[in-house]
Every structure is written in C-alpha cells, then in structure tokens.
Design a protein that fits this description.
141 residues, alpha+beta
C-alpha cells in the first residue's frame, strides 16, 4: 500500500462516486432524489451576464452554491428575484430544506431577511476579521 499526493480529475470523481454510493446505501428510498443542477441568469439587452444563482438539488434538499449580482445592480431587487426563482424550483421538487454558506463580507443579512437561519459560524475565517456563516431555510407544505 502507498499514499501519493496528486490531483487527477478522474481519481477525484472516483472518490466522489464511492462516497455517494456509501451514502445512498445508508438512506431509505424515500429521501433519494435525482441530482438536479439549477441556475438562473440575469442578463442585459446585450446578453451580458450581470447576475445569477446556481444550486444543486439532492435528497430533497437544495444547496445554493453561488448568488452574485453585479455591483451596479445591487439594492434593486435582483438578488431577491433570483432567490425567489430558485426557491420556487425547490418547492416544485418538494425540497424540505435549502442550505448555503456565505461570508460576513458577503450576504448573511440578506439571507436572514428572507427567512434563512444561521445554523453555524466559523469564526476568524477566511481571516481574523471575518466569519463564514452556514444558513438554512425549512420549506413547509
């Protein structure tokens, strides 16, 4: 046996696949949901991307990966529209939970304003003056 340090996408994908197989073997069928990638883009008249939100649905859970709006458009409601759109997809897919993470210099207050609750904080990350927040929102039907 030997352990080697390297980055190889194929090997990384294999490890990911094996973890997913293990996880699925431990979960009942009723929580299994096909993985679905979701995104909404905000474009101007020239089709330039000025904002967007991306996420992934699995196990009836939506994980929001990225939400970004160009600095020139912030405060005009586009972030809320993007968030509303992806939340609607979560509801259509019967997700029970939405989760995400954000830094103190990004948008924890924005998410809290729309019903997200802080479920964890890593202090002094990515530096001494900031924190990383983990937030979630339970969806009721």
């Amino acid at each position: 046996m030997k352990i080697t340090q390297q980055w190889n996408q194929e090997d990384s994908n294999y490890i990911r696949k094996k973890v997913i197989e293990h996880n699925l073997s431990k979960l009942p069928d009723e929580v299994k949901h096909p993985v679905k990638n979701i995104s909404f883009m905000l474009r101007n008249e020239e089709e330039k991307i000025l904002g967007g939100i991306t996420g992934r649905i699995f196990w009836y859970n939506l994980h929001i990966e990225f939400l970004w709006v160009d600095q020139s458009l912030r405060g005009k409601g586009y972030g809320k529209q993007l968030l509303d759109n992806i939340e609607e997809i979560a509801r259509e897919n019967r997700c029970n939970l939405i989760q995400l993470d954000t830094f103190s210099f990004q948008a924890p207050d924005f998410y809290q304003k729309y019903g997200y609750e802080i479920v964890g904080v890593i202090e002094e990350h990515p530096n001494n003056n900031n924190q990383q927040y983990y937030l979630s929102k339970k969806l009721a039907y």
